[in-house]
Write a structure and sequence with these properties.
427 residues, alpha/beta, TIM Barrel, 2 domains, four-stranded antiparallel beta sheet
């Protein structure tokens, strides 16, 4: 892999990121081992191995079942589950309900490109232990979101928007716990790509979602890459206005799309969206005391193979480390996993983690090294006289396994932030 430019390899920045990861992503824990009578067991050899992270590392799963050959679909599924623990599930209205009153919820619905039926996706995610994020509920953008049959008159279409939210909440609200309720609201203020929305539709979106989704659902707002810099004030003010209206916003989504070779090289050189600028933006949005989701990541590789792949991998590693180090960020979502898997117009970009042939690229390996090696904890040792074993580990689920003659059992624990993390285990 090519060396980092000096701007990203600054020792002070590296130290700040390392310290942030150590401080915000790990906690102390104690495992206390006893026998069935509650007597502490000293001298028991233990292995405490992390099996999942509480942090959401995800991608959109829009290409599920999207290939003509079963072997291709298998490779896509294996690569997805081999890297990620979370998935963004598509609910784009234009493709979900192309004919009014006939939504494509069922797994056997007629196929549409990059829009697998939600029932199929949800079942796959549940089978493979993937956390889910529904996207989007309300997005007033004609090209990708608005069905052709929706009337232009806001008085007529507002009840249809609400009914859409109600249907989705009724069918999936207890299975998918995080949702992008409002997508790209600042876009509509700048461009004329919308049509016929009710006045204050941003407020209505959260009112509808709060009315129909379970109270434990997380209702997010999501917006464009420009929210990191030139449109940050507009996005910040929109969130503030909605919160001041008493609306239930559960998290803030920040897209991050780098669309060209020149932009990628400029970003790596710190000329655009420098580390300092990114950290400052995260600090600004942290003022709301809401979790931040790096919600859609595109890093266009400047070519195929060799140096181009290395540059993409370098950018991915640098950015993931910075985002993971910030205490307010709780999830990072790559957007299109395979090359040629993006939306028409964007599919020419080599922005995937997999080649067109679904083989892992350097960026896939770089993220795998971070997520499954550097940011995973495995500890081995022996319990003390009080039956205690101490460790410091990344937040997430762990398997505790004793190495005692005749014992073939194990226990599961979860290390959490801001928690005592003391666990009683009986073997």
């Amino acid at each position: 892999m090519a060396n980092h430019p000096d701007y990203w390899n600054d020792p002070a920045l590296s130290a700040k990121i390392d310290q942030g990861i150590e401080h915000h992503r790990k906690s102390e824990a104690i495992v206390r081992v006893t026998d069935a009578a509650g007597k502490p067991l000293a001298g028991v050899p233990l292995t405490v191995a992390q099996v999942d992270s509480s942090f959401h590392f995800g991608a959109n799963i829009f290409k599920l079942d999207g290939y003509p050959a079963p072997e291709e679909n298998r490779r896509y599924e294996e690569a997805f589950c081999g890297l990620f623990n979370a998935a963004t599930v598509p609910f784009y209205w234009k493709d979900l309900e192309p004919e009014q009153g006939k939504p494509r919820f069922a797994a056997d619905s007629p196929p549409r490109a990059r829009r697998p039926p939600p029932d199929r996706v949800v079942a796959f995610c549940e089978e493979h232990g993937l956390k889910m994020h529904g996207h989007p509920l309300v997005w007033n953008f004609i090209k990708w979101s608005i069905p052709d049959w929706l009337p232009d008159d806001p008085k007529k279409n507002a009840p249809l928007w609400e009914e859409r939210v109600r249907q989705i909440a009724e069918r999936y609200g207890h299975r998918i716990h995080r949702w992008d309720v409002l997508n790209e609201g600042t876009w509509q203020h700048k461009f004329t790509s919308a049509r016929g929305v009710p006045p204050n539709y941003e407020r209505h979106a959260f009112q509808w979602a709060d009315r129909y989704f379970p109270k434990d659902a997380r209702l997010d707002i999501n917006d464009l890459t420009s929210a990191w810099d030139e449109m940050l004030p507009g996005y910040f003010n929109l969130i503030r206005r909605l919160l001041d209206d008493g609306l239930n916003i559960g998290g803030i989504g920040l897209q991050f799309h780098i669309w060209s070779e020149d932009e990628l090289r400029s970003q790596l050189a710190g000329k655009v969206k420098s580390p300092a600028q990114l950290l400052a933006a995260l600090d600004t949005f942290s003022e709301f005391n809401l979790p931040l989701h790096i919600s859609e990541i595109t890093l266009a590789s400047p070519g195929e193979g060799g140096e181009a792949d290395a540059l993409q991998a370098q950018a991915a590693r640098s950015l993931y480390r910075l985002w993971f180090s910030h205490p307010s960020v709780d999830s990072i979502t790559w957007w299109n996993v395979p090359d040629s898997g993006a939306a028409p117009g964007e599919d020419k970009l080599l922005s995937g983690l997999l080649t067109r042939e679904l083989k892992p690229k350097a960026a896939y390996h770089a993220l795998h090294e971070l997520i499954h090696r550097e940011w995973r904890t495995r500890a081995e040792g022996v319990t003390d006289a009080e039956g205690r074993f101490r460790l410091r580990g990344f937040h997430g689920q762990y398997r505790v396994t004793p190495a005692r003659a005749g014992v073939v059992t194990e226990a599961m624990i979860t290390i959490r932030p801001a928690s005592a993390n003391e666990f009683a285990v009986t073997f």
